[in-house]
Amino acid sequence: MSIFNKLNSIFFSPTPSEKNSKSSEYNWTNIEDIQSIEIPCYPTNPGVASPVNNIEYILHRKATEFKKEKKEDLAIACLKKANELFPYSNFSWGKKDYMRVVEFLKDFGRFDEARKEEKRILELYSKYFSENKFHQNSTDENAIDTFIETNKKVFYSDGSDLVSTELTPRACTCEICSCYRGRIFSVYGKDTRFPKLPDILRKMYIHKDCMLRFSPIIFFNGDRNNFNPSYDSSISFTSSTEIIKYVNRPFIDERTEDEKKIFIEKKLREHAEIQDRQDYDWLREHLPEQAPKSFGGYRKMKNANSPNYIKLKDLASENGYTIN
Ligand SMILES: [Zn+2]
Question: What's the 208 CA to ligand 1 centre distance in angstroms?
Fold first, then answer.
């Protein structure tokens, strides 16, 4: 679910008068009005805040209304304008929010435009997607240097260079990345009690999906350290000697059978969804009359292997497209 949809379900259940209180400040009658909405001066949000009164949020709401009223171009203009504003917002917006315009275009049967818009969004905005904002997900090959520099004042003022690695959540990693979980690395090899950070981790991930997370760490003298990796609650050390021994263990895939199974199932689920989306996109482009109205509807009929699904599959096949 996109951030927009989540917030919509949490915050937005207004009375009709509230509904119009903010959107009434703008003109919605033509595309030019929407395009001329200026970047607002966003107040900084301390802590948890809701963006429901932000113009980009209002634009998404208006897009939904316009879609229902079959005013396609106004709906698209709203979502494109929201994408222009997202990078300036005081709230983080994710890929799904940016891509909502692409889904709308597909719903309207405007597939060539959808493909162009998707490409344009990826080129212009992918660096602003909330999931890409952490420097742990950046394309910087030497992200670890920036990480150390950023945390210099608090963690590294004494010249130390230790980072610990965790996995969140459990069991979402492959056989390679799992070798690097539950470690303490000395980034530049200054502290020889710990393994030096391998070059492969200088960009702070091997596979983004595997969610290896880095934290700065201060390793105290004596037995004043706590080491409790989240992937295995049975591992808990306070003795410095034990911690050092543990983080130097061999770099091998030590996932349990259960973890391996969960990881494979997760990958299969992801691949199935990608394939189903591709099939659904083909169906709504080439067989718009027969395709179900929503992706959820398509998956439901597919999972049930309903007679209508079998008919649809045969029809696709007659038109040169194979659904497995
Ligand atoms: Zn991996």
Answer: 7
CA distance 29 to 112: 26
Give the Å distance between the CA of 205 and the centre of ligand 1.
8
- Residue 13 pLDDT: 43
Extract the residue ranges of the chain whose pLDDT is less than 50: 12-21, 48
CA of 235 to the centre of ligand 1 (A): 22
Q: Exposed/middle/buried for 31, CB within 10 Å: 0-12, 13-18, 19+? A: middle
CA pair distance 51, 37, nearest whole angstrom: 17
Using the structure block, give the residue that is written with the tokens 């003298």. Answer: 221
Cα 177 to averaged position of ligand 1 atoms, centre (Å): 4
255 alpha carbon to ligand 1 midpoint, in Å?
12
pLDDT in tens, 247-299: 999 999 988 898 899 899 999 999 999 999 999 999 999 999 999 999 999 99
pLDDT number for residue 190: 96
Cα(267) to ligand 1 centroid in Å equals 11
Residues bordering ligand 1, an ion, CB closer than 5 Å: 174, 176-177, 207, 210
